[in-house]
Amino acid sequence: MPGTWLECIRCGRRYSINEIAYRCESCGGLLDVEHDVDALKSRSAAEWKDLFSRRSRMSGWPYQSGVWAKKEWVAPQIDAENIVSLGEGYTPLLKVRNLAGLPEVWVKECGISHTGSFKDLGMTVLVSHVRQLISQGTQIRAVACASTGDTSAALAAYAAAAGIPAIIFLPRGKISTAQLAQPIAHGAIVLGLETDFDGCMEIVQGITSDHSIYLANSMNALRIEGQKTVGMEIVQQLGWEIPDWIVIPAGNLGNISALGRGLSMMYKLGLIDRLPRIVAAQAENANPLYRSFLTDFEDYQAVQAKKTLASAIQIGAPVSYERAVKALRAFDGIVEEASEDELAEASASADRAGLYACPQTGVALAVLEKLVSRGRIKHSDRVVVISTAHGLKFTDFKVDYHEGRLADVVSRHANPPIYMKADIDAVRDRLAAEIDRR
To answer: Quick one: DSSP state of residue 164?
Structure first.
């Protein structure tokens, strides 16, 4: 079995993969899971491609999961009987024409997953790891996270499947009803705190400090390992070809690091011969990474995140900032922001193309449109946008847009329902007018 361990991203200190540790005891840096790449080279690049392709056609446990189909690259230390999977991964990669100013854009629909977001990719690994630790005698009473919605849904579902208690800290009144419903339905202990996400994050770090309650946020390296498979899936779905750009919404920034780690691993093991460029897309009202990017990452300041329609990335003090900067530098990355009006319009335009885009995906699409208009991204470039969650989680956002109730947004694509009497002649006349208008 190839070796894995935890390693500090700052000083390089190593820890056992089975040690409960989130930060380095020596310098306070975050930890990453590292793999023995030389051992993995016992298979050639062609053999890995063949293995992953064959597993993508399997239905047997655990390879029906896009994450566990790449088990040797993700969590080889976990025994098959401890894997907790809900069929995550293998989400569609759709070609969408005439979107964001490009003749075609590829959209990785991570929201078409069990709990409706890309967080499932990381949570299957984290909860499986906890189950493995418990089977080895580690005393863990529960798993806990702070969340703006999607992480809580994923943790609650996977913990329920594993039979492990889950504790959820949410900023009261700052997530959608659909997102609140998910952890409640799965039987988690849900606490709505009078603070924002960053305040919830501070609380959960204190609650999990004695290790009897296990931290499930993306500062935990195990989460990143599952999420890194999204980049691998994109490449596999493109016939092992590399896009020129990947655009991804950015909040707590673990997703930036995860994307980079997966693609870097493919590059080191010879499955790809170059790396794409990464664009991190932030909401203008919660943009600490963008502000730092303007100084070439020399000056970083956490911000007090303002209310944004892209509530899942309404984070002013991202935990994985250092990881994200490391990835963006390695991938010649760009950070750009989108206003509330821009993200809402981009989301509505995507819906008109047949998608059902969450507001975070709207941020990514709006940023893409900006970069195309400036010539940073060329019309001939192949671009993949990562859609992080299903639009059904944000039904209020959709309805409010079409009924013109969103502050700072001009609803240019508004399409409210038409209410009228049940008179066939009147209906026929109105339909004729509406069809001609469209």
So the answer is: -
Backbone angles phi, psi at 414, to 5 degrees: -60, 135
251 neighbors 148 (Cβ within 8 angstroms) = yes
C-alpha to C-alpha distance for 74 and 229, rounded to whole angstroms: 8
- Return the sign of the alpha-carbon dihedral for residues 51, 54, 56, 59: negative
Q: What's the pLDDT tens digit per position in 9-46?
A: 999 999 999 999 999 999 999 999 999 999 999 999 99
205 class by beta-carbon count within 10 Å (0-12 exposed, 13-18 middle, 19+ buried) = middle
Nearest to 249 by CA among 309, 336, 307: 336
pTM of structure: 0.95
From the list 66, 77, 46, the residue with the least C-alpha distance to 118 is 66
pLDDT tier for residue 1 given thresholds of 50, 70 and 90: very low
**β-bridge mates for residue 105, sequence order:** 96
Q: What is the dihedral of CA 151, 157, 158, 161, to 10 degrees?
A: 170
Buried b (16+ CB within 10 A) or exposed e, 17-36: beebbbebeeeebbbbbbbe
Judge whether 249 and 367 are in contact, CB under 8 Å.
no
- Tokens 């990785």 — which residue? 108
Nearest-angstrom CA–CA distance, 13 and 20: 15
- Residue pair 27/8 in contact (Cβ under 8 Å)? The answer is yes
